[in-house]
């Protein structure tokens, strides 16, 4: 075991002080001088909890003394259990207030629930639903959101079945197995608040480790036996007479269509599931090998081959650095370059002493997760707000322009060998108009390799042996990798859903998917979406918090159905219209809605249908309770 000073130097100071104060009851550790509020307009992530100079030294010294005496007095082979809220020697709210620098915007309910020490504030309630009404729930998808919903239903004691197309849990983390695949949100805030893990290897975990995490979650909570793997839901039709959903499912290994009936249908299908491959002229004439990033074929040899990657989004920016050294040549086709947030730790492992501290000091990893959660909750929200009076195509406000200038400075330093690339790698659109990626220098290093060519002239057409650019250059290649994204705005596009009167959901929506509170659609009773329209995050948070909020809300809807013996529940058109006006106006006031730049958040007519425009606290508060005036309720038990 190392001495306390080593651990303190490796730790994140603010959450460490919270954990020590909670264990020892020593309030001097959470002295207000050690709690600097995170500057919402700052471009850099806070280091050392925002402390510097003598105050930093003093905080470190206090933490070292406290940790030293704690370690001296415990049996390190058998440390005491994780503290819970009731056993805390200082009120949890006081510690949270210290963690956030007494930030008034930190919703106490959200922060307590996200800490994961407090059953009362937990993401969903722990009591069983009284079994007045037996409901059977069908969930489509066993990814991050389907699994979280399943866990909530299990706690509530409600019967459910999950239909999953793939042969494993984990959703996108099963289908995306391309080289370099890893999180671009910090592990801790991406993991569930109710299933925290203290032994992650990396700060931004690899796809494989995350897949194991979901497998572990499903197995530990005994959800796996409730999943029908390899089974696709082809259609879902609402039955007016029984207020149930009739599902036609098919086993993908050659099964015949089967019929199922459920009282409530929950869509957890995700939006990043159906690959989008642009219809380039001559696309199908190519005689080499072809794959989409989400349909990776490891039998396709890339070593010493001539490869083209089309696209420079979140998938391409991981694939390109991972394969650049082993391929013979690499042509990277960029339409518009990505903005990236400086993140030196992006590929790094968590230091050994830091991992050790997480297992030695009870509660520390939970405070660390809450700190990460809080930093990402603030995110870059303020910097991506659009000022209606700001006139520039490169930025949407004065702070957004400052953000841009700082990032451009950072990019410039990375192209010493090829400054001519700068004109192409500095995006022309405002920061925040699309999702930001992570920058640890690996993208710039890859683009400057001798065997790598950044192609910005656009794809003209494709022939048997390669790609012609729009300007007439030719790239002869053996393999084309489409990293061109997904049909993200076609919500629930893989299932033929029919509601009241046989109304088709895809026709009702057209290209403009809308759902009341992101969850429910008039005319489609007892259908609830997790990860529905307007749940995508651009400048704050991790998708996991959105999932946890919606799961809590759907859990509440189901409790209402059971407690009041409702046969159906659907929102009113008026409530949906009101909600839609609110989020649409909100999106127009943010960089991703105000800027004149396409992205996968927008439908074909350019309207943002994917993204949530407000803060996470707003979403959290919206999901805390059901406003029954907005819902149409039908009484009487359905007859499944
Ligand atoms: P994406 O971000 O939508 O990127 C697609 C890329 O293909 C863009 O560069 C786009 O250019 C380009 N493209 C699309 N159509 C094109 C066309 N007709 N001609 C030329 N280029 C074209 O897709 P993605 O990279 O698969 O990522 C999608 C989302 O998945 C991410 O935003 C993220 O939420 C998630 N994801 C997460 C991770 C992670 O956490 N580790 C990893 C991968 C993906 P334009 O930008 O000009 O449209």
UniProtKB/TrEMBL annotation:
One of its GO terms (molecular function) is NADP binding. This is NAD(P)/FAD-dependent oxidoreductase. Keywords: FAD, Flavoprotein, Oxidoreductase. InterPro entries: FAD-bind_Monooxygenase_sf (IPR051209), FAD/NAD-bd_sf (IPR036188), Flavin_mOase-like (IPR020946). Gene3D superfamilies: FAD/NAD(P)-binding domain (3.50.50.60). It comes from the Bacteria. The keyword Secreted does not apply. Coiled coil: none annotated. The keyword Kinase does not apply. Pfam families: FMO-like.
